[in-house]
Predict the structure.
Amino acid sequence: MQKSLISQVQLGRQYSKEWPMRKELAPLFAEFRVIKATELALNTMPMLAIFTLFLQTSQLGHEYLPQAIAVALFFLSLPLQGLLWLGKRAETPLNPALYSWYTELHQKMVANGYDIPLTSRKPRYRELARLLKDMFEKMDKAFTQENL
């Protein structure tokens, strides 16, 4: 089923909050870099869009207003592209290698006292994010270092 653009952006925002922002995960997953870039774009691009719109119209005149609006819209679309990617990634099923790592990690966590059951269907990146977040929050440092 196709999701609406707004719901995918909302899911991307939610996924970015669920993903554990740990430096240990940065080389393994693209989420760390995408979330950092999206957060930066959310903070800077609106002001940059207004600045370029103002600068182009004041320096080049109002006949360049369509081009200035196009550039401003491009700047405003950059954070949305990151959120759309994150929303799509959250719903993507894990590949076979990540799936086996996910189940192995869950089994090790259960052996160490973790009590949330494994999902019956094929897990997605969103479930992986929750498991990793729980691992970093609920397990000791020796366990996390051993399993990454």
Q: What stands out?
A: The mean pLDDT is 88. The helical segments are 5-18, 31-60, 65-90, 96-111, 125-138, 141-147. The CA atoms of residues 109 and 139 lie 8 Å apart.
